[in-house]
Write a structure and sequence with these properties.
There is one protein chain. The chain is α+β, with helices and mostly antiparallel strands. The protein has one domain: Bira Bifunctional Protein, Domain 2 (BirA Bifunctional Protein, domain 2, 2-Layer Sandwich). The protein contains nine helices and eleven strands. The strands form two sheets. The protein has an eight-stranded mixed sheet, with helices on both faces. It has a three-stranded antiparallel sheet with strand order 2-4-3, with no helix packed on it. A hairpin with a 4-residue loop joins β9 and β10. It catalyses: L-aspartate + NH4(+) + ATP = L-asparagine + AMP + diphosphate + H(+). It holds the Pfam family AsnA. One of its GO terms (biological process) is L-asparagine biosynthetic process. Pathway: Amino-acid biosynthesis; L-asparagine biosynthesis; L-asparagine from L-aspartate (ammonia route): step 1/1.
Length: 336
Amino acid sequence: MPLLLPTDYHPSLSVRDTEAAIVFIRENFQAILSEKLNLQRMSAPMFVEKDTGLNDNLNGIERPVDFDMLANPGHTIEVVHSLAKWKRLALKQYGFGMHEGLYTNMNAIRRDEELDNFHSIYVDQWDWEKIISKEERTTDTLEITVDQIFSAIKAIEHEVAVRYPGSVYHLPDHVCFVTTQELEDRWPDLTPDEREVEITKREKAVFLMKIGDKLQRSGKPHDGRAPDYDDWQLNGDLLFWYEPLQTRIEISSMGIRVSEESLKEQLKKAHCEDRAELPFHKMLLAGELPYTIGGGIGQSRLCMLLLGKAHIGEVQASVWPEDLTKKCEAAGIEFL
């Protein structure tokens, strides 16, 4: 997405007030979320060993930041892209029971990210995961969970509005559920990005389902998804229409995780069958991991959305190219 610079932009909060609001949003939202989804906060790694297969491969082309370790020679350590697979393993290792889950503060580096108003090389999100039964691997379970997350976002919106009146971007009251195939059928001549903008502009809040598999008309996926965590038939993105920038913003990516059967199918479709020999994947295929639902909720993006900010750099400290920084400064956008 190209850099969007709103005209006559004047943030309603100073940098120091923005920092205070960020703390308020983060501390209170995670408490609301954990109560609604029955989650316990757990510590999480910033890096994992490459050979475990635990790192998120994203679209398969992004390069993880890696390094070696003096005390453990011969092993490559990777900074996580996300904790999508680690969480499922942690639920087993820590003895979580049916309908119990965990959440953690996940910090990642994605050095190949294309920078714009919503994307930084630094990623901070609430990563969460919850155990469900195999019978609950359904669209109904997915939609109920999305509604719970949406209600948590609406609850923190209300609390922020009370504390910072006049500084909150108000969100819609309901979320619309739609599939990627329905969007392609409706707007076959638009690109996937254009379809997302169009549906979100009309509905204001959208959960876009079934991301990763090929669509019927184009024969191409709507968007990339790694084949070894989300079930492509039971996942989706939570999108909001963002009036200040006249576009959509993604707040969460989530889904019911792969079963033994769907993992085999998706590895084959993605030509990644060699991953079946990695330790995590062996455990999953052997039925040794619980069935789960999980995802990530962007911390900086949620703060940006609720506070009406024009750029993610206003709510997180990162590194930006000099030309981008100058353009934003000229538009009244002050980076942390």
